[in-house]
Each structure stands twice: as C-alpha cells, then as structure tokens.
Amino acid sequence: MPEVGEVKLTKSFEQAVCIVVMLSTQEKGVPLATDAISNKLGVSPTYLKKIVRKLVVAGIVIAVPGNNGGLQLARHPHDITALDIIEAIAGPISLYEDTGLIGKVFEGGRNTERGLRVLQSLFEEASALLKQYFSGITAADLFERCFEGFEMPERDWNRGGAG
To answer: Residues 77-129: pLDDT tens digits?
Structure first.
C-alpha cells in the first residue's frame, strides 16, 4: 500500500491503457463489447465497469447503447494523453500531502513556516514536471513507438482479434 505522498500506479492504470489500445485499434465504426475486453484482459465484468466508468467520466471513452453496443474512444488517440489516463484512474498527480508532522516536529521554531513552504514548493514543482511530461505523451505517440512507423493495425476485438 502506498505511503502518504507516494505515487504508485495500480493495475487499474495498466488495464486502462490496454482498453485505450484495444479501442484505438478496434475496427472503425464497430463498438467494442465490454465482454471482449473483460475476456482479453482476464478481469471480471464488474471490475471492468469501474475502470470504464472512470474513462467515460474523463471523456476518454464513450458507451454506445444497444444490442451491438459497447465502447468507443471519445477522442482521437492524438488527443488522449498519458496524463489524461493517469488522472482518470488515479486522480490528480500530487507527490506530497502535508500531514502536519513537520509542523509538529518544529513547532514554535522560527523557521517552521518557511520550512513547510519550501517543502511544499519542492513537491509542487516536481508534481508539475510530472504533469508536463505525461501531458506531452499521447496514445498515438505510444503506438508510433510500438509500431516503429508502421501503420497502426485495425482489428475487430469482438471476434477475438489478436494482439
């Protein structure tokens, strides 16, 4: 379990990335059934719904109703950043949470407030750098790195498309 202020991306993040990959390579105009995703990733439908819900709320994925419904990307892979996925699943990046312990240790000291501000500033700057880094990487960038300039494959995962 992560400590206060520790950044740890869970399996949910990895699964969310896999969902975005599957949706990005899904045959155009054909919604991807959640059962196909659940089977491919080996996760329960109930657990998958929790991840998908976060992606829908974040505007990354849309749910298509109906007998042939399922999921589709809400935006083009060029418009989905790693930060979008991280924040959809894990919430805003924050490397430090002030629990008040430093204030207690140095309570009454003449530099207590200054020390707290310096520490908070240090971690706010680090968090900002991480946000900047992850906001500069799109899903399309990741595909281009993986497929080394080849055109991204398209398949119908509903029919058991292979990776």
So the answer is: 999 999 999 999 999 888 887 787 777 777 777 777 787 888 889 989 999 99
Question: Letter for the amino acid at 1?
Answer: M
Q: How is the chain split among helix, strand and coil, in percent rounded to 5? A: 55, 10, 35
Q: Which amino acid is at 110?
A: R
State how far the Cα of 87 lies from the Cα of 81, in Å rounded to an integer. 10
Q: How many CB atoms lie within 10 A of CB 51?
A: 22
Instruction: Find out whether 97 and 7 touch, Cβ atoms under 8 Å.
Output: no
Rounded to whole angstroms, how far apart are CA atoms 120 and 131? Answer: 16
Q: Right CATH number for 11-159 from 1.10.10.10, 1.10.150.130, 2.120.10.30, 1.20.58.220?
A: 1.10.10.10
Nearest to 7 by CA among 118, 115, 123, 144: 123
